[in-house]
Write a structure and sequence with these properties.
oxidoreductase activity; 5-stranded parallel β-sheet; NADP; Rossmann fold; oxidoreductase; globular; single chain; alpha/beta
């Protein structure tokens, strides 16, 4: 589907979790498209790592408005929400249930045109049945999804499948000099690997597209569907090295 881009009136976008692994890409994508961008962040502390402070500095240089606060500060969130049009949550897995506080604040603000919760990953309503450890995570996400659907909040649910850089590093360990690679199962299972920057850019676009209102959008380019064995073969061609497929692990 071709995604429409509004180049005239730029939506104001508020991002929760914008300093995280994937969140920073969403913030950069938002500013690259010219959207006035706000990021709700925890207050800076002396214990904060230099990398986090540097990232905040980068955001400020891009014109991002950093709003320091906690998710428990309902009134502060409502006041910020009243200044924006779109809300994108990229909170980490551990904070998925905390999105209830964001939903409450959005309802109280009453002006948000679109909310994208922290879903991404697989399309949860199509997986049957998930494995027990994964099932617990999906249940948390499904609870948030059902709350949003039952509310009056306009939404878009994004299924971005796998973050390519993260999973390629996990499956190939390209910086490891050892000649062996652990293969999971038979290595033939297919996955959709989408580049983090591409996921972020399309997320900003679908958030502004009227056709995606109250819809599920799945990022599944045919050329990005690949198995671990195919990844290893491509890596061998690129590097000229030969890898041993060692320590096969069958996941049951």
């Amino acid at each position: 589907m071709e995604i429409m881009s509004n180049s005239c009136n730029k939506s104001k976008i508020l991002i929760f979790g914008g300093t995280g692994y994937f969140g920073k890409h969403v913030v950069r994508a938002s500013t690259s498209f010219g959207h006035p961008t706000f990021v709700f962040v925890r207050p800076a502390t002396a214990q904060m790592p230099p990398s986090s402070l540097q990232l905040r500095g980068e955001f400020r240089s891009l014109g991002v408005t950093l709003v320091q606060g906690e998710l428990e500060e309902h009134e502060k969130m409502v006041s910020v929400l009243k200044q924006v049009d779109i809300v994108i949550s990229v909170l980490p897995v551990s904070a998925v249930p905390d999105q209830i506080k964001i939903i409450d604040a959005i309802i109280a603000a009453g002006n948000i045109k679109r909310f994208l919760p922290s879903e991404f990953g697989c399309e949860m309503d199509r997986i049957t049945p998930p494995l027990p450890p994964f099932e617990a995570l999906l249940e948390k996400k499904k609870k948030i999804r059902r709350l949003i659907e039952a509310s009056t909040i306009p939404y878009t649910f994004v299924s971005s499948n796998c973050c390519a850089a993260y999973f390629v590093n996990f499956l190939l360990h390209p910086h490891d000099p050892r000649p062996d690679i652990v293969v999971y199962g038979t290595g033939e299972a297919k996955a959709v690997l989408n580049w983090e920057q591409d996921i972020a850019k399309y997320t900003i676009k679908v958030a502004n597209d009227p056709r995606t209102r109250n819809r599920v959008v799945i990022y599944r380019p045919p050329g990005n569907i690949i198995s671990q064995n195919e990844l290893i073969s491509s890596w061998e061609k690129k590097t000229g090295r030969r890898f041993e497929k060692a320590c096969r692990v069958r996941i049951t």
